[in-house]
Amino acid sequence: MAFWRSASFLLAATLETAFRFEHAVHLLCNWHTVPEQGSVVCDIAFTPSVSKRPHQKSHTLWIPSRRELDALSAHGQRLASLMADFVPLQDAGNDQLFDACFADRSLRFDRLRSEFGADDHTPVTTFYRMGSFVEACRNGPLVSSTRMVGRFAVTRFVALGWLRGHLPSDDFPTGIVVYRVHGTALPSAFPTHFTTFDRLVRWSREPNEGVPQQPDYVVPF
Q1: Dist CA 7 CA 186 (whole Å)
Q2: pLDDT, position 116
Q3: pLDDT at residue number 120
Q4: Where is the signal peptide, in residue numbers (predicted)?
């Protein structure tokens, strides 16, 4: 399970660091899943590009091609190949650390606060850092290093709807879209034939039954 949680952490780091600044990609939720469900799953907030084509809606949805998914997978694989450690930062509630970690990630900050509960001012959790990326991990420890990740792939993007409170408007015509992203990974200690990993990739593209299909922060299109 520690490896699976680490793969989910790597997926979150991949998504937050792969896109251009204009898309303001931020993690909303790093869902707790198990290997038997076939995929690690993250929800992200994504600001679409403003269309420059006449008569085209500015909020035309982007759906990544297979080549773009491969590019995201390669980016994640590069992050893993840097052999960074998963460094635990805190094992107990600490408001100062919590605020510092998410000072420039307000959407994730608000989401974590809602998960911890309005009355829980000092959430008990562990923060992990991989390079410059920091995330809260409430469901147990991670492995010690990214070098334990052998194969990694970003496998599925699904647009769930608009982020609640950020629908398209005259002042903000693009709105913010919530995407659900799936991925999968294998430990470096278990080298496999590419056809075996391809089967795991296909499995990971299926809907994950362990994750709510319509989170409360999503407004359907």
Answers
A1: 8
A2: 62
A3: 53
A4: 1-18
Q: Is the dihedral of CA 137, 201, 105, 116 positive or negative?
A: negative
What's the CATH class of domain 2-219? Answer: alpha beta
Helix or strand or coil: residue 56? coil
Q: Residue 138 has which token pair?
A: 């409430």
Q: Cβ(212)–Cβ(163) under 8 Å?
A: no
The pLDDT, as a whole number, for residue 95 is 67
Environment class of 98 (CB within 10 Å of its CB; exposed 0-12, middle 13-18, buried 19+): buried
The pLDDT score that the predictor gives to residue 50 is 72
26 by Cβ neighbours in 10 Å (0-12 / 13-18 / 19+) ranks as: buried
CB 16 within 8 A of CB 27: yes
Distance CA 122, CA 136 (A): 13
Cα separation, 99 vs 209, whole angstroms? 32
Instruction: Tell me the C-alpha distance between 46 and 23, whole Å.
Output: 6
Are 109 and 134 contacting, i.e. CB atoms less than 8 angstroms apart?
A: no
- What pLDDT does 82 receive? 86
* Cβ neighbours around 60 below 10 Å, total: 11
Whether the model pTM is above 0.85: yes
Residue 102, SS3? coil
CA angle 27, 171, 53 (to 5 degrees): 85
Query: Low-confidence residues of the chain, pLDDT below 50?
Result: 54-56
Question: Edge to edge, what strands does the sheet with 87-90 contain?
Answer: 87-90, 126-130, 133-137
